[in-house]
Amino acid sequence: MLFLTYINLIMPTYSKKIAIIGAGIGGLTLALALEKKGIDFHLHEQANSFEALGYGLQLSPNVVRVLQDLGIGEELEAISHRCLGFELKSFKSNNTLAQWKLKSDTPYYQCRRADLHQLLYNSLKNKDKISFAQKLQSYEVEGEQIFLNFENKNSITTHALVGADGVRSPIRQSLFPTEKPQYAGYAAYRAILPFTPEYNSLMDKATVWMGENHHVVAYPNGNQNKTQPWLNLVLVVKDAQWHEQGWTIPADKQEIAENFQNQSPLLNTILKDLVSNPEPCFKWGLFDHKPLPFWTQGKITLLGDSAHPLLPFQAQGAAMAIEDAYILALCIDQETTIEKAFIKYQDLRLKRTTKVQQTSRNNADIFHATGIKAMVRDTGLKLISSINGELLNQKTAWIYNYDPLTLPL
Known about the structure:
By secondary structure, the chain is an alpha/beta fold. It has a single domain (12-181, 288-406), classed as FAD/NAD(P)-binding domain, CATH 3.50.50. It is 36% helix and 25% strand. It is built from twelve helices and 19 strands. The longest helix is centred in the C-terminal third of the chain and has 30 residues, at 338-367. The chain starts with a helix and ends in a 9-residue tail after the last helix.
């Protein structure tokens, strides 16, 4: 008995009761990873009910490995289109500038964000661990406990807090009150259309049309053999005007079609379908967030867009959030205190996500180059593609070959 008392004194008492704020893709992935490890958590979402929102996602091999390890690989395949490569085309001439095949034993998937969101939610066995209509107003740290104050709700206590509350994260704001996003100078438009036979040349790949000051990305969504296939469409243009930082601002589809007229018969058909189809199209201003010096403060940490919002020019926003969630769960499971777990997680993730942020920022300049820069870009892409397309795979290998399952923790 005395021996057990001595052990209790020298070993830290570590309560793994984790409060997660935000039931987006990052928050749900963390909840699923913690549930599989038997770690206590509670997920708080400000929406009144589960809402599977959003348009297309590209899920590269680095994140597919995580989802497979979490036991939802088959379900993911059932809702996804398999991407085998990429094609870059000229907005002016419709000529192909570069095309290459992916080389990976792990699939690269394209799916609807709503479908992945729903899959993660359905995969949680204990839905009682999720509370809706809980908008966090503030929190206080007192000793070993954190008091969470929700709008129109009683305060609750937890032992650790994870902010997975998105690009406008109040938790990040509390940790970094002077951090302000800067308008990046781009307006983006998202739409999703029913996939028609006219779009068949876009199958099995992601296609990008690059022009002066604007670009368009189009790719299939959904498993055409099992679900309704869709075409995801993202249109981005340089725009000096300040735009509200939001996702659901209605866009004028006729104006978009006129502004993005080009030399591609297929893309012009897609734009015509965009105008006539009842599916909504939304616009949002792109905002740039400087990398944070740290994410963790004691028993509080950040995840996904709360920690490292990305410009959408490397298709890694959801991927980084899922990687974060998986590695954070591993650290919580292995460390003896929540403080050590959060610091270890930060150390493992900060450098990589900062590099992805910078890469996304650099791609903005490449996609929207004008004048001499555009000519150099187009000539260089044609030359590389004709000599050795594998060089284009090597450019993203550090992202796609990353395997969180083999990290030395």
